[in-house]
Amino acid sequence: MKRIILRIIIALIVGLIAYLLLWPVPINPAAWTPPTAPELTGVYAQNNELAKIERLRIDSFAPEDVEKRQTFARLAGQLKTEVARINTRISEFLNYSRPSELELEPLDLYAISQDAMRIIEAQAIESGIKTTVEKSGDIPPVMGDTEALRSMMTNLVINGVQAMDGGNGRLSILLAGEESGRRARIEVSDTGRGIAPEDISKVFEPYYSTKDTGTGLGLAIVKKAVDDHRGTINVKSKVGSGTTFIITLPARGKGERLTNGTQEHTRS
Question: Which domains, from first to last, does the chain contain?
Answer without folding.
Answer: 2-95 (no CATH), 103-266 (3.30.565.10)
